[in-house]
Amino acid sequence: MTEMTDIQSESSVTNRSMLLKWSWRELWHGQLWPVAVALTLIIACVFALAALVVRVEKIMVDQGRSMIAADLVFRSANPVETPTLEKAEQLGLTVSQQVRFGTMAFSDEAMQLVSVKSVESDFPLRGELELQSPVDTHHQVQPGELWLAERLFDLLKVKPGDVLAIGDAELTVSGTIVQEPELSFNPFSQMPAVLIHADDLESTGAIQPGSRVQYRAYFTGADSQLKALQQQIELEPGQRWLSETSQGRTGDVIEKARQYLSLTLILVILMATATLVLTCMHYASTRTEVVAMMKSLGASRKWLWQWLARQLTMLFALALVAGIAIGALLEYLLRVPLVDVLPEPLPGIGFTPLAVSVLVALLVAIPGMGIPLLRLVDAPAISVIQRQENWPRNNKAYLLALLPLVAGLFWLGSNGLMWLTLLGLAAILVILAVFGVAIVRGLKRGRWRPAITLALSRINRSPMATGAQLAALTSSLMLLSVIWLLRSDLLADWQQTLPADAPNVFALNISPEQQQQYLNVLDQQQVMRSDSYPVIRGRITHINQQDLLERAQQGSQERDESLRRELNFTWRESMPVHNELTAGEWNKESGVSVESGIAERLGITVGDELAFNVNSQPFSAKVTSIRDVEWRNMRPNFYFIFTPDVMAELPATWLVSFRVEADQETVVNQLGRDYPTVTLLDLRTMATRIQGIMQQVSLSLSVLAGLGVVSGLLLVMTLLRLSLAQRRDEIRLYRTLGASRKRVSATVWGEYGIMALLAGVMAAAGAESVVAALVKWGFELPVSWHPGVWLVVPLLSLLLVVLIIRSMINSLLLPVRG
């Protein structure tokens, strides 16, 4: 009995060993290796992309937070309350406070309006503060110190060691502010900066009842702690949270880059999933006879699943190891173009890319491989003798598709951009597939050469199969086009945000008597400048005799920001060249032109009567036009531009912006000395910082777009190869029945050429539609069209067809030999 048990045990071990060896041979010598390659590519691409996304996002967040000097900033018009600071400390956050206000600085020889920042010794919590004294470099402000923006030394005629009066306090100048992390994006509120320590604030006596003072609290800590603090603080009027995504240009760039990174990852996953599903379906179709043979020899479903399970386990293990290794190498190669702009040391990637790549691979592989394999196991044994195209299906297998669907619902949540993309893609693919079949049917009615006629007949033979093939090929080309076009539109928008010739200095408070003389100096120095604008501050009060404040109080909507403060008004005879008229006409008399954003928010339309108040003087004007304004281009822009007759009698100062190049450094200081009453806002440092961030983001997005395009090309090539492989038996039958190589070859070229050209044109149309929708409703940018895509995508499609057919044509044209 013991001997019998030992024999059975040895037989079981031998069977498992043989099954393992067979599974290994099946993996490499059967048709399963393309599935392994596809799964490896999914893991590699997702790992590389996720790793780079993690790095780039951390870098962008770090850069953005460096520009606000903390992870989170609380801004208030009143002193920050003690309970707020106590809550932050209880959450384990690091806190630093700042008070900033405008005042006059007096030296023995001059005076100047300055922006004083009273900071604590640990400021900044993020970014770098560089202070240069005559003997050393400092990075923090200490009690008793006074640091000045470089321009103030000329304006106030002082040097380090001199005494400067700030309010009631007399402080000794310590040195120069070389670099500070905080940058203001409002040219109408920035003045030369002065840094003092918080301990010296009270001695200045500059803060009195009615003073315009801004209080800030800076916090650093874990994101969860920061979020908890925001949830516990209920904002009051005059209070606001500042984060890396709320700071003007950089916040806008970072937010849009995040959206693009997520969208690219989704599209790459979609393309990799399609590649895996196609290869797995092809594998299942090629192993039907093998499974049928094993069934005819007595193999049970349980044994077949053990056989397949071993193959799939080995396949997934190999794909995981190879995919992670290739992904890590790919992520390194993707960083090579960014080496000059990435910081050192690089932020870590953690376990997120590994977890995401494994999870995505499982979510894709379980339904992608499970559905065709469940159908494969159900293959009837009679298929050994006679091929069976259809047999009873296990419809429960399609429940596996719920797994990635539920995961997608959980992951995407309320992300409107992603849902817009996915639903738009699905709708467009259905439309294009139907449209493509209709076009092919229309082409068949024409008179063509025999090879083209046969190709069209072959395509029309199965409308469903034709529609599926066209949809698959079109979607592949469309997805890679969407990735690249979105990247191009984002970069174009950012270039418009800060063009190469953008102004980097603003001159404000120019008196009417100085205006022409000031402009003449700029022209003599060959400085590129804008037109000059008269500026006066005022408020909008009524629309068609309806009081806006009363309307805001009665309505449920929050009062618009433009109603909370005074706005900058100007007047001109002609519209600024960097504005675009969207409604009405530009008039030269008795009118006002309104910026489109505020017009939409306040419900202003052409023909409305608006009432304003400037220095307690009411006046009104009729809306004659609506303008689009690009607020981010650092040019003088205004909500309301009046005709000269409406406001010309009101007292105003003048504004001009200009660009100072590297060889014109002395111009700013000379202007400051010659026109001490003119406020000069030097934004060169800010522009350089913004351009640096944009360069990093732009290169990163280009690399990511390149990876997405490569994934799309792999999908297209896989699709074409599998399609031709499925045609092999049919083509060989034509050859066996006597069809010439020339005729069969011409038919193949004609069929796939028509499909490629049609798919390329439809992909271009689909990509334009999807990108237009994403740009308008997802990224909120102006829609632009891309004529080049209508040429490049069809040519790319034809090129891929040529490459694939040339690599397979000889094997396809071999006749069946008896």
From TrEMBL:
Residues 264-377, 703-805 form the ABC3 transporter permease C-terminal domain. InterPro entries: ABC3_permease_C (IPR003838), Membrane_comp_ABC_pdt (IPR038766). Keywords: Cell membrane, Membrane, Transmembrane, Transmembrane helix. Pfam families: FtsX. It is found in: Cell membrane. Its main location: membrane. The chain crosses the membrane at residues 32-54, 260-284, 315-334, 354-377, 397-413, 419-443, 464-486, 699-724, 744-767, 787-809. The keyword Transmembrane helix applies. It comes from the Bacteria. It is a multi-pass membrane protein. PANTHER family: INNER MEMBRANE PROTEIN, MEMBRANE COMPONENT OF PREDICTED ABC SUPERFAMILY METABOLITE UPTAKE TRANSPORTER. This is FtsX-like permease family protein. It comes from Photobacterium pectinilyticum.
